[in-house]
Write a structure and sequence with these properties.
single chain, Rossmann fold, 4-stranded antiparallel β-sheet
């Protein structure tokens, strides 16, 4: 097994004043060279989780507790200046949806990439232009020498998203955070961006976290995944194990929607599936002290875990 590059420990995020929980008891390990997926619906906390990793939460959100260890360094304990100069964009880079919202509309895209690159590597100014043009070519920008001088409004949505990917890759980060990388794009462009992400992951072997509502995207790109619902991880493990044998009802629902047959299922199918899945674990579960055990998950097998709260509910009811 490769070394752990990122470890999130007992992360809790709340809304200030109200102390409403947005993320609760998040624990994730990311290995070097791994592509890890976070699947969940709108409002589940996916984007908040990615922003928490680089300690860039905006008010009214605040970190209540936990650690984010990147190469054993707790990113929640270092200053904003150090994060800006040594981590964000350099060692950990982000790919966002809606690229035209992210790019400066009054600057050529090449200059925007160059400014980011030189903010971290000032001594490389002589090689910057060539490096950027080469990168634009690698991410599929046609006529990169010309597009270097293009403004965002001159680019299609798919082309602009490739610029966002180039911005993320220019400093050769150790970890990529991709938040809905195909979001806001039409179906044809989504396929192009998907193929680009697949190419990047396969060729660079760079550690990547992808957050998405699209379980198909996660299934094709990631080795492991977690399912996020209302700010909690309800299931995690090997991608193919979870998709072939989903346990939590939210996971089952996501997969059924992806298969386009969710509407044809009976209302009680979720509960029946869960109870049948847990029969062989009933003795283990009943012997466990569920309330006092600090482990929030039950092991289905060595590559598949489900939230303990769900099992509590099944036993009680």
């Amino acid at each position: 097994m490769n070394n752990i590059i990122l470890e999130i420990q007992d992360l809790n995020v709340v809304i200030q004043e109200a102390e409403k929980e947005i993320l609760r008891n998040i624990n994730i390990e990311i290995f070097e060279g791994e592509c890890f997926g976070i699947i969940g619906g709108s409002g589940s906390g996916k984007s908040v989780l990615l922003n928490s990793i680089i300690n860039s939460l905006k008010e009214p959100l605040k970190m209540k507790s936990g650690k984010v260890l990147f190469n054993h360094q707790n990113l929640l304990e270092i200053s904003e200046n150090e994060l800006m100069s040594t981590i964000r964009g350099k060692k950990i880079a982000s790919i966002y949806p809606n690229p035209h919202w992210r790019l400066n509309p009054i600057e050529p895209v090449g200059k925007q990439i160059k400014d980011l690159y030189l903010s971290h590597f000032k001594d490389n100014i002589g090689d910057a232009d060539k490096k950027i043009v080469d990168l634009l070519r690698k991410v599929g920008i046609p006529d990169p020498e010309k597009r270097y001088h293009a403004y965002p409004y001159e680019l299609s949505g798919g082309m602009a998203q490739r610029i966002i990917v180039a911005l993320a890759l220019i400093c050769e980060p150790n970890l990529l955070l991709a938040d809905e990388p195909t979001g806001g794009l039409d179906a044809t462009i989504q396929i192009q961006v998907f193929n680009l992400m697949l190419d990047i992951i396969q060729k660079t072997k760079r550690s990547t976290i992808i957050a998405s509502r699209d379980i198909g995207l996660i299934a094709h790109l990631c080795q492991r995944m977690c399912v996020l619902s209302n700010g909690s991880i309800v299931e995690y493990g090997d991608v193919h194990e979870i998709i072939s044998n989903p346990i939590h009802p939210f996971t089952v629902k996501l997969i059924n929607i992806a298969k386009s047959n969710y509407k044809n299922r009976k209302k009680n199918d979720f509960r029946e599936k869960m109870i049948n899945s847990f029969k062989e674990y009933e003795k283990l579960i009943l012997k466990s002290n569920l309330e006092n055990n600090k482990n929030h998950f039950i092991e289905i097998n060595q590559n598949h875990f489900v939230g303990r709260a769900l099992i509590n509910e099944l036993i009680v009811n």
